[in-house]
Amino acid sequence: AKGFRVGTVADWSYMDGRPYDWILGRPTERIPPGVDEGVVGMREGGWRRLIVPNAYGSSGLRRVNPVRGGGRYTPPAAGFVVSPGAFAWFDLIMVDAGSGRCEDVLNPLGVPEERALKLRSFTCLPDDVSENFNMGSGIGR
């Protein structure tokens, strides 16, 4: 079976406690072209589900492990969580669509960069900021 409620979670920025950001029109290794195209027209606070065929092309996507305190790494012998040429399912929440609210909350003026990198927020609202972020047990179910 395939879909949103089955399989392994491949990449979950929610677990990092910081929204993932990229520049629209410039896909990244985490945001494939189909997702970049699929967010066009979203508004802040919007939610969208995408099913992207051949999401990661011929290279696929290998397992990514979270690192306590934020960040991620791919083990040298990691298996595929999205096989080459396979469909991938994405749940997206547009937290900041260019208003700058995440920048204001997660990189506040006067706070040293080292400390700012430890700040966590799921919504980028001023009352939802934590420096003591305890990540869950891992990615997946």
Automatic annotation (TrEMBL):
Listed transmembrane segments? none
What Gene3D superfamilies does this protein's entry cite?
3.10.50.40
What class does this enzyme belong to in the EC scheme? isomerase
Q: What PROSITE patterns does UniProt report for this protein, alphabetically?
A: FKBP_PPIASE
Which InterPro entries does this one have?
PPIase_dom_sf, PPIase_FKBP_dom
> What is the reaction catalyzed?
[protein]-peptidylproline (omega=180) = [protein]-peptidylproline (omega=0)
* Keyword tags: Isomerase, Rotamase
Under Pfam families, the record lists: FKBP_C
Q: Which domain of life is it from?
A: Eukaryota
Q: What is its EC number?
A: 5.2.1.8
Q: Name one GO molecular function term.
A: peptidyl-prolyl cis-trans isomerase activity
| Residues annotated as domain PPIase FKBP-type | 1-98
> Is Nucleotide-binding tagged as a keyword?
no
Please state what the protein is called: peptidylprolyl isomerase
Q: Which organism is it from?
A: Calcidiscus leptoporus
Q: What is the lineage of its organism?
A: Eukaryota, Haptista, Haptophyta, Prymnesiophyceae, Coccolithales
